[in-house]
Amino acid sequence: MPRILSYNVHRCVGVDRILDVGRIADVIAAQAPDIVALQEIDVGRARTGGIDQAHQLAQRLGMAFHFNAALRIEQEQYGDAILTALPERLIKAGALPGHPRLSRLEPRGALWVAVTIAGVELQVINTHLGLVPREQWRQSEALAGPDWLGAAVGAKAVILIGDFNATPRTRAYRTLTAQLKEARRAAPRPTRTPTFPSTMPVLAIDHAFVGSGIVIEAVRTPLDSISRLASDHLPLIVDFHLATG
Q1: 4, 34 Cβ separation under 8 angstroms
Q2: Are 125 and 114 in contact, with CB atoms under 8 Å apart?
Q3: What is the mean pLDDT of the chain?
Q4: In what order do the strands lie in the sheet with 214-220?
Q5: Read out DSSP for 117-147?
């Protein structure tokens, strides 16, 4: 059964303020995912020692990776990544719209990779939306539009996953559930499964939205001490299978 894991790694800095790429890798490896969607990855940034976190995590996990820089400051980059050891190909990486009146907000983007599972291409789109409700809504509209989900028309095996900074009550969440099922609600045993903050999770803001070709088996988060410490988010883990027929 395939497993996808989404994880805002907080630039590999834990709630104890310790930078530890290896600890993040250990949290991921303990869940044995087939596909990993990461948010808040630093590449070549002075604040995290100038290392390429996407490359280091992929190397530690024995996976290939694609990275999309939502933010570039000269040689420094910050954004999202998709990792997998399965056959894959990059479809698209790009920016999402910001708030029309708040130009200084952190830029956001999305990354789309097709991963082949049992001869079927699964379309995986990883993203990290903004913090301001109107910004989130504009970004969710863009993802639901012709450049992203619209371009995947006909591909029933699609997963839109990541840190949406949005609870089920928000307009951004409703925009996406108008097209896709939210994994928690599609599971055999629907669950709330909060992911933030990691030390005492109360908010479900990391989500997986899936197309009709995806059957959800289970959704969970690890609650062990290392997972609670390694980042300010908990990983969201989704077990699924591809629908037949």
Answers
A1: yes
A2: no
A3: 95
A4: 64-73, 76-84, 35-43, 3-8, 236-242, 214-220
A5: ETTEEEEEEEEE--SSHHHHHHHHHHHHSTT
Rounded to a whole number of angstroms, the CA Rg of the chain reads 16
Specify the DSSP class assigned to residue 218: E
pLDDT at 101 over 80: no
What CATH number is attached to the domain comprising 46? 3.60.10.10
Find residue 123's DSSP bridge partners: 114, 158
Tell me if 213 sits within 8 A of 158, measured CB to CB: yes
Provide the domain count of the chain: 1
110-130 pLDDT per residue, tens: 999 999 999 999 999 999 999
3-state secondary structure of 88: strand
Supply angle C-alpha 165, 167, 171, rounded to 5.
95
Give the integer Cα–Cα distance in Å for 135 and 206.
17
Question: How many whole angstroms separate alpha carbon 70 and alpha carbon 80?
Answer: 7
- Say how far apart CA 153 and CA 133 lie, in whole Å: 27
Q: Which residue range forms the structural domain that includes residue 216?
A: 3-242
Tell me, what DSSP letter sits at residue 107? P
Percent of the chain with pLDDT over 70: 99
**Structure confidence at residue 155 (pLDDT):** 76
Q: What's residue 13's pLDDT?
A: 98
Q: Which residues pair with 76 in a beta bridge?
A: 73
Instruction: Compute the distance between CA of residue 39 and CA of residue 161 in angstroms, rounded to an integer.
Output: 10
Mean pLDDT, residues 67-79 taken together:
91
